[in-house]
Specification:
The chain is mainly alpha-helical. It has a single domain, classed as MFS general substrate transporter like domains (Growth Hormone, Chain: A, Up-down Bundle), CATH 1.20.1250.
């Protein structure tokens, strides 16, 4: 198979393997933290969770980085990306270990949220840097395949970390502390692996003198404006439209995530243990969809083009999401998790490829940070909408239909843009 051959070629590249290892370890730790938060907020027996509580937790974790994210991009285009991976993961390991100690000592609950807030802040730098550094370790010919493998492998690593965290969470009373310590260990391993990469390898190319912090902060708005202008240039407009489409699909995914959490907690199960098991199965099916997306996207994006592949993904989700979601039953829910995992990740791979191929290296850091900001705002906004629409048991026909309509609008809008682009050539 062509996919297998390309994977073998990529994995022969030493620096690609090392960058991939950093991603896998970092995102597996992220998966551990995400499950720790979900179980803490939704599945703690002493708490009566609600969609509003889930939305509040997402806002606490993500909204502040809608402000910090652009600053991360500006700094990523000034700092050596290898050093971001090293120091960022070391900082997260220290914060996670400190949090586990405080949790074991019975400290206040708000400390958990502060820790998660700090870990997520660093995460903006690490994930944006990983995406921006990828073209430095593979050639342009294999960039689509690399985009299929690395983000998807990272997502699968996050699912694996989350799965392990679920198992630990089900073992006993001290499991919350053990889950956080597992995350700390994985972050430390990611930091150590990053030392295998040469400091100058990952760029960026532009190497200005290191500015003072005040100078960097005052120059942020100007640099970001240059990044936005870069996206507005005719050769970059396809990237801008892909980002807009992916943002709306992320909104859909976020709304459905809240719905699934509430269904697993109240609508389809009678106990927290049963709910955790069903949520774990849903995550596993979604992870399988991510894996299939990595296999089919290189061929599909090559045959249809990345933007047309986004159209196919959004259109498929528009049709299948209500068909599988409206029964509000465990079996269709698991199939829907697979379908949405496949379509969401496939569209993300295509979007990453469009952005990387249309954006100059000196702008990639800030563009991918803006990408993260759009992701965060869309996810939190979706959680807020879901909190308004969802009943306590998570069964909302209106939400399912609304999400399907958004998917359909994305498919129609991108299809019209592509037809106009062809007619003007």
């Amino acid at each position: 198979m062509a996919v297998v051959r390309d994977l073998r070629v990529l994995l022969r590249l030493r620096d690609f393997r090392r960058l991939l290892a950093v991603r896998l370890l970092s995102q597996s730790a992220d998966g551990v933290y995400q499950v720790a938060l979900a179980t803490y907020v939704v599945f703690s027996p002493e708490r009566q969770a609600s969609a509003a509580a889930v939305a509040s937790a997402m806002a606490v974790l993500l909204l502040p980085y809608s402000v910090i994210g652009p600053f991360a991009g500006v700094l990523l285009d000034r700092w050596r990306r290898r050093q971001v991976f090293l120091h960022g993961n070391l900082a997260r390991a220290v914060m996670a270990a400190a949090t586990a100690t405080l949790m074991a000592a019975g400290a206040a609950d708000w400390l958990f949220y502060v820790s998660a807030l700090c870990v997520t802040a660093v995460n903006r730098f690490v994930l944006s840097g990983l995406s921006a550094a990828l073209p430095r370790v593979v050639d342009a010919e294999r960039l689509v395949m690399a985009n299929s493998l690395t983000p998807t492998a990272g997502s699968l690593a996050a699912f694996a970390g989350g799965g392990l965290a679920f198992l630990i969470r089900l073992t006993g009373a001290d499991s919350d502390t053990a889950v956080v310590l597992l995350g700390a260990a994985l972050y430390l391993c990611a930091a150590l692996v990053s030392l295998l990469l040469a400091p100058e390898l990952l760029g960026p190319d532009r190497r200005p003198a290191r500015p003072r912090l005040s100078t960097a902060l005052t120059g942020t708005v100007r640099d970001l404006a240059a990044g936005v202008r870069h996206l507005a240039e005719p050769p970059r407009r396809a990237a801008a439209r892909a980002l807009a489409a992916m943002t709306l699909m992320r909104f859909c995914y976020g709304a459905l995530t809240v719905m699934v959490l509430m269904l697993c907690r109240y609508g389809l199960t009678s106990s927290t243990g049963e709910g955790l098991r069903l949520l774990g199965l849903a995550l596993g099916f979604s992870g399988a969809g991510f894996f299939v997306a990595a296999l089919v996207t290189p061929w599909a994006a090559g045959r249809f083009g990345p933007l047309w592949w986004i159209v196919v993904c959004a259109g498929s989700a528009a049709v299948l999401e209500p068909a599988l979601g409206l029964p509000f039953a465990a079996g269709p829910l698991l199939v829907a998790a697979f379908v949405l995992g496949l379509t969401t990740q496939a569209a993300k791979i295509a979007t990453d490829t469009v952005v990387q191929s249309r954006v100059d290296d000196g702008f990639r850091g800030r563009i991918f940070s803006l990408y993260d900001v759009l992701f965060n705002v869309a996810f939190v906004g979706a959680a807020a909408v879901a909190a308004l629409m969802l009943p306590p048991d998570g069964r909302s026909t209106a939400l399912v239909i609304t999400v399907a309509a958004v998917y359909g609008a994305v498919a129609v809008a991108i299809a019209r843009y592509e037809r106009r682009s062809v007619s003007h050539q």
